[in-house]
Amino acid sequence: MAAPGENMKINGDRLWESLMDMAKIGPGIAGGNNRQTLTDEDGVGRHLFQDWCVAAGCTMGVDQMGNMFARREGTDPDALPVYVGSHLDTQPTGGKYDGVLGVLAGLEIIRSLNDLGIKTKHPIVVTNWTNEEGTRYAPAMLASGVFAGMHTQEWAYAIEDSDGKKFGDELKRIGWQGDEVVGARKMHAFFELHIEQGPILEAEGKQIGVVTHGQGLSWTQVTVTGKDSHTGSTPMPMRKNAGLGMARMLELVDQIAWSHKPDAVGAAGHIDVFPNSRNVIPGKVVFTVDFRSPILATIKDMENTFRNEASRIAGAMGLDVAFEKVGGFDPVTFDETCVTAVRNAAERLGLSHRDLISGAGHDACWINRTTPTAMVMCPCVDGLSHNEAEDISQEWATRLEK
């Protein structure tokens, strides 16, 4: 048993080994991972996490959205659990740490408490939220959104991927549809550990990011329809080039984001072109515009400006354009008590820190609506994430868990 007040630390080597072992499941092609939600690889990763949790003395609960809850009991049977965690699913070209660090660091807390013979008053529950990334099934943070009452389970089950496979069917197929009612669990607090996914901490030499707010985001799927025709024999004045229309709209997205500086951002990261042939003028394009800001009014202004100006562009070019809101959430202010607890812990341990606004969406953004919530972040090399070259150091990962 550690003496009261002793600076207790987790086993950094064991945490790092667990990260590397999980990274063997669904390897990418350039050193990262492709472990998309509800794929066979996701199922294998879940089984490995469950095995580790059971070996650490936890009981595993799974709800009807596939969210996993590994519980270590506390000394007070009436005390609500403290939840920690993140997600194990990745982007198609994802790194080894985005989300995974938060889940396995939570497991390492439990392992280290076991090693040190420490019992906590509150139970601790390590969580793996289903489909945080939203790559295969939009929107992102889907299962935590159902948990927080933002989406219905029926609606989530009916969402289809690009191959027409429904979320609910794939959840059953890989064997991770649990029995628990989604959202029935009560939490004392929730903490999400994550890499920054941005360059600020590394650039400023800060060890800890204390996340006070989360940017809101808006995803709008845009379909531009023209007429596919031969690139060589269709005169320039007679073309209805959906690809060109999209190009002008993408420039518009960038202009709108710049006009709302310094904190607003915007881009289109998902683009499909039809028929996608070298000698055919595109007759249809589908792309998703991603606008983000910590100010809700700014997001709404960017949305409205884009729709109005994109419609004007389409009209001038003889194209049709349709808009569908496929994801989004309002900006988040995290719980002051939880945020202060993170900041005080960094100061007590002598770690340099700074407040951050998270530019990415996280499960914590939804859970914050029902439970006192905060996030803590560590640097990542060059701020790179959603990329197989995503990288952190073992020292950075370990600092999160002192």
Overview of the structural elements:
- It is a single chain.
- The protein is of the alpha/beta class.
- The chain has helices at 12-23, 40-55, 100-116, 142-147, 153-158, 167-173, 200-204, 242-259, 296-317, 336-348, 363-367, 394-399, and strands spanning 59-62, 68-72, 82-86, 124-128, 189-195, 208-214, 216-225, 229-230, 265-274, 280-281, 284-293, 320-329, 332-333, 353-358, 373-378.
- The strands form three sheets. Strands 1, 2, 3, 4, 5, 6, 13, 14 and 15 form a nine-stranded mixed β-sheet that branches. A four-stranded antiparallel β-sheet has the order 9-11-7-12, covered by helices on one side. Strands 8-10 form a two-stranded antiparallel ribbon.
- β3 (82-86), α3 (100-116) and β4 (124-128) form a beta-alpha-beta unit.
- α8 (242-259) packs antiparallel against α9.
- It is 33% helix and 23% strand.
- The model is unreliable at 1-5 (pLDDT under 50).
- The chain has twelve helices and 15 strands.
Tell me briefly what this model is:
With 402 residues, this protein is of the alpha/beta class.
Span from first to last CA?
16 Å
Low-confidence stretches: 1-5
Helix content range:
25-40%
Radius of gyration over C-alpha positions, nearest whole angstrom:
23 Å
Count up the helices: 12
Strand content: 15-25%
Order of helices and strands: HHEEEHEHHHEHEEEHEEEHEEHEHEH
Using brief descriptors, characterize the structure shown:
402 residues; 33% helix; four-stranded antiparallel sheet; globular; nine-stranded mixed sheet
